[in-house]
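Listing 4. Sequential folding, example run.
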Amino acid sequence: MTRTRKELITSDGTATLRFRDPNTFQETRHIVVKEGSIIVDRLNELEFIKGEIYANVWHSNMIARISPHDGHVIAWIDLTGLLPPDQMIDAESVLNGIAYDPRHDRLFVTGKQWPTVFEIKVIQRTVTDKRHIPE
C-alpha cells in the first residue's frame, strides 16, 4: 500500500492497482499495469514517488515505475546484483522493500531477510532490448 495526497493505492499481488478513498477504503478506480500490451503481474511493495508508482515485482530484482493515470510502465529499475549472493539466506531472500525520503530526495530498498537497507540513485540510461518484464 502507498498513498498520494488524496488516495490510497493498494496491490493484491496481481497486475491490478486499486485506488481507494482514505476515509472509507472504497475503491474509486483501478489500473492494470502493462508494458506495451504485456500485463505485469506479481506487483508487491508500492511507493508513490514524484507522481509515479514504484512497485517491485515479487521474486525478481526489478522495480517498475508506473503511471498512476493509465498503468503503463514508464521505466524499469534493475537491482540485479545489489545484494551479494553470499548474503542471501535462501530463495526467499528477495527484493521486497521500497521507501522514499522526500525531504532529502533519497530512495531506499531492502528485501526479505536482507542484512541491510540500501540507498540507491536511479540513473537514466537507454536500453535497446525489451527484456524488462520479469518472468
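-- end of first protein; second protein begins --
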Amino acid sequence: MRHDGERERGSASVEQAGLAALVALLLLAAIAAVFAGAIGRRIACAPRLPDACRHHPLVPAYGWPLARLTRALAPAPAAKPGPSGLPLVPVDFRRCRQESCAVAAGAHLTASGRRTTAFTQLLDRRDSLGWVEIDYWLFRPGLGWEKEVRLADQSQVDAASDVRVLLRDDPALVPLETLPGRNHYDFPPGERPPWQWNVHSRYPGWSS
C-alpha cells in the first residue's frame, strides 16, 4: 500500500508540474502578445510625431482650432484630364507617381483604391494681418502640383470649432510642416513641388 501511495503521489506531482508549466506558457504567450502589440504600435507611430496614433497629424502640427479650420476649408477632390486624357485626382506622391494609380473612380478613390490627398501648409498671421492662410497642395502624376489657397479670420476659426478631424476623412490631409524628409524626395523637373525647401519645420504645439 505504501508503494502504491508513493506512486500516486509521484503521478500527481508530475501532473501538477505539467499544469504549472502549461500555465506558465500561457502567461508567457499573453505577455508576448501584449509586447508585440505595443512594439507594433511603436513601429507604426515611429515615423510620425507624438500622439499621431491618437490624433490626426493636423492636430500636433497646427493645434486643434486650426486643424479644424484646415479640415473645414479643404477643397473637394476634383478630377482633371492627364497627359493621356484620363481623369486624374490628387494623390499622395509618396505612394503614387504614375497616372494609372491616380485615375478617378468615384468621389474620393482612384481606380487602384487610393484615397485622394491634399498636402497642407499653414501661415498664421492673425497677430499681424488678422487672418490665417492655408495652402492646399494637390499632386496629379503627369500634371504636377496645383495650389489652392484659403484665407480665414478669427470668426471663421471660431465657426469651425465643431468640425471633426478624423483620419478616415477625405481628402486625406497631410501637413507639410511635419512631413519627414519632405525636402529630399526626388521629382522629375516638371513635377518638382514649389513648396520644396520653402516650408519651415514645426514641432507639435497644442496651444495654437
